[in-house]
Amino acid sequence: MSGITRTGRSTWRNWAGNVTARPVREVSPASTRELADAVRQAAEDGLRVKAVGTGHSFTAAAATDGVLIRPDLLTGIREIDRTAMTVTVEAGTPLKRLNAALAREGLSLTNMGDIMDQTVAGATSTGTHGTGRESASIAAQIKALELVTADGSLLTCSEKENPEIFAAARIGLGALGVIAAITFAVEPVFLLTAREEPMAFDRVTAEFDALFAENEHFEFYWFPHTGNCNTKRNNRSAGPAAPPGQISGWIEDELLSNGVFQLACSLGRAVPVTIPAIAKISSRALSARTYTDIPYKVFTSPRRVRFVEMEYALPREAAVGALREVKAMIERSPLRVSFPVEVRTAPADDIALSTASGRETAYIAVHLYRGTPYQSYFTAVERIMTSYGGRPHWGKVHTRDAEYFAGVYPRFGEFTALRDRLDPERLFGNDYLRRVLGD
Length: 439
Fold this sequence. Notes:
- The chain is an alpha+beta fold and 439 residues long.
- Helices cover 32% and strands 25% of the residues.
- The chain has an 8-stranded antiparallel β-sheet, sandwiched between helices. Strands 7-8-12-10-11 form a 5-stranded antiparallel β-sheet.
- Helix 7 (246-270) packs antiparallel against helix 8 (275-285).
- The longest helix is centred in the middle third of the chain and has 25 residues, at 246-270.
- The protein starts with a strand and ends with a helix.
């Protein structure tokens, strides 16, 4: 199989529709060699290069006016090593295909985010994460990766090989090169029991530390304009498997979480005054349920209602105070917020630009329905988050710059020095990277 090259300025759009780009050409390499050739050719033509996954980032991290590399043909499992308990996959493999393929082999990732449409390289490069007391982001599960650098050479990076690059490139923002393949740690497939339960805001925030400590994976959603939350606890189970019933699962995951929610968001966007009433109804519509299944069927859920999102990582001990400030801010403002606010956690990790780098972390994510003006809400929330030294998710809306990041990431200078070494001419640069990493 050989790759595909398309020239001419067609417009690329991200999933949320808030970012567009018009590259000179798009390339879909079918092998690592073709990927390296595409990078070398771009350099010769004086064009900048960005690889794009499924466009699930809300930032312009992958936007370029040069060469856009689409990894559609760089997919599939390359190798499963049952001795080392690893799987090596091509960079463009969608997480949903990886999860299903691993399950067929009796294997699983340890933790994952709640959406699995992204490619493995896109998800890890921006720091995609789920929630976990001990198990961290998808990038923290990487054991090795292959990176095509600005001179077209292929570097293999792991704790033993090019360890200083490995320490940074697992969440590299596309700034250090183009990932060709990733090796993840895996384990024998296991069962998780999910317990979803409505809970009052005051109770969740008062008991947050205990709920975190008692559960392997804890998260909750608060519905603005109400005192209501929905909690989710995922813990390993001896079984047996007891997935949601077809009808009850469809009602919760499709009808309420996608269908009715879509209608409610559309009504709220058209008539914002209805949002508080809708929130009170929708926050009461979800009922308690418990089910047991393999990990990806518990961690992930379909997301068909399109939105724009901002998420900040805070020191875990600051989460409740910050969330209470967000609630108070919304209550005293004219804002009408139709989407729940999501709270998750992660352990500290050792990746230079991970939002959980070097500290126990809690995440607070705010969303608004696509097409709704979000700037005033996000600006007010961001002001609260930055007062706690918050670190924004690299793939979600934020206004921070390199000067700010140098203050909240102790290893920021380590990353930018490595970038200077690997890409001195900024072949992989774009406007977003200029803002967040500096020139």
